[in-house]
């Protein structure tokens, strides 16, 4: 794991920027030439926006905080919600490969998905499972049900998703750091879509985000439009580490 004293002699003078907008960019992260960052920790500062946006290799992934003390990167991303509104009469499970897919981001090293995130599933008679690497490979999963006598879901304070209308599940750490695959399926394959009162979403988010009444209330509306759902910024917490694999990174050092 990267230690604070590993950067005591690294100079960020000259061409190496240490801020992008209102986000500080501490080493081993960096912007610009390769000598500004440890291999794998390069970020992009999009100055076409005001203030500029710090990006993690994908326009959908905006970095809002980097912590050296906790070895974490907090990102917010758009297009994070997977909606399953079609094929509701099919019992065939639906698989979504996550590695190399913008559901998270391209590539894994040096990042891993923090266990401070959770899997969230909304909708009626839906189930989702998150798979990592290894055997057994299930690292999270839950199911959401609805009674056809229910006309709405009551939103309270704190966690309220206990399997009726939505569910939340902790995510355990995958062996290789990132989830590999997501499975979604309808548990009642013979219910017509117009009888399902809630939209079916599956996503990963930092714990506590979906507990907010304003967030859950927006998502769990039958008339929720796909365009507005895609625009929602979902926070995700990543862990990072410097991999000492014998390679000598091209970084500048000064006494």
Automatic annotation (TrEMBL):
<keyword id="KW-0732">Signal</keyword>
<protein>
    <recommendedName>
        <fullName>Wall-associated receptor kinase galacturonan-binding domain-containing protein</fullName>
    </recommendedName>
</protein>
<dbReference type="GO" id="GO:0030247">
    <property type="term" value="F:polysaccharide binding"/>
</dbReference>
<feature type="domain" description="Wall-associated receptor kinase galacturonan-binding">
    <location>
        <begin position="16"/>
        <end position="77"/>
    </location>
</feature>
<dbReference type="GO" id="GO:0016020">
    <property type="term" value="C:membrane"/>
</dbReference>
<dbReference type="InterPro" id="IPR025287">
    <property type="entry name" value="WAK_GUB"/>
</dbReference>
<dbReference type="Pfam" id="PF13947">
    <property type="entry name" value="GUB_WAK_bind"/>
</dbReference>
